[in-house]
Amino acid sequence: MSPINQEAVRNIDKIIRIFLREAKKRNAPVFRFESFNNEFEALVKIILSSRTRDEKTMETTEKLFKRIKDPRGLIEINQKELEELLRGVAFYREKARKLKKLAEILVERYNGKIPREFKELVKLPGIGRKTANVFLASFHKKQAIGVDIHVHRISNRIGLVRTNKPEETEKELQGIIPKRYWNKINKAFVAYGQTICKAKPKCNECKIREMCWYYRENMNSGERI
Ligand code: SF4
Q1: For atom 1 of ligand 1, which residue has the closest CA?
Q2: Torsion of CA 23, 133, 8, 217, to 10 degrees
Q3: Of 1.10.10.10, 1.10.340.30, 3.40.50.2000, 1.20.1560.10, which CATH number belongs to 37-138?
Q4: 166-213, pLDDT tens digit by residue?
Q5: Using CA atoms, how far apart are residues 163 and 94, in angstroms rounded to an integer?
Q6: Residues enclosing ligand 1, CB less than 6 A?
Q7: d(CA 127, CA 46)
Q8: 138 C-alpha to center of ligand 1: Å?
Q9: Fewer CB within 10 Å, N or C, the chain?
Q10: What residue spans define the domains of the chain?
Q11: Topology of domain 6-30+144-220, CATH
Q12: How far is the CA of 189 from the centre of ligand 1 (A)?
């Protein structure tokens, strides 16, 4: 098994604090993302956000929830109109289809409410591990790690994990990070990924670079970052 960055594991609390502080200074979109009127809106927003910029997701969710209020409203709305409302979000036709199915199941089986158990959530249309974990962590403050591209990429860069897929990253992080930090990881890492540790990272602005294996490896090889 490849080694992991134990220094970063020991300092995860500090890393989370720095990520949040630095991303706040730069007004990361994710900080505006977490305002929900109810749990259904929160879940829909998280589903729509997949592969879509937070600004676009927020704008679309706001438009949608001016038109509907709850799962029953989503059932009543016509598929074409729903697609129009979601246009601009990645895979909007597919998401429109899945959202309608989701609303039907919530009304039929759960009386319009949303289950709070991970195992139940991932059985629902349009809800994978990441969506379920982000929903539980952000809306219900449960200890869950939602791993998206930012969490996966930054965890690998720092050396917290050595993985190829987000599902592996989730499992590895659960094994090394104390549970009390789990529901803070997604927001902090996404915020940092939006502002500093982007696809092309701004390592020269990074306040944890002395701890980061990507930085050390690239500095040692003389590569410019
Ligand atoms: S040093 Fe660079 S790669 Fe490492 S966390 Fe900071 S920005 Fe990301």
Answers
A1: 209
A2: -80
A3: 1.10.340.30
A4: 999 999 999 999 999 999 999 999 999 999 999 999 999 999 999 999
A5: 29
A6: 154, 157-158, 196-197, 201-203, 206, 208-209, 212, 214-215
A7: 9
A8: 25
A9: N
A10: 6-30+144-220, 37-138
A11: Endonuclease Iii, domain 2 (1.10.1670)
A12: 11
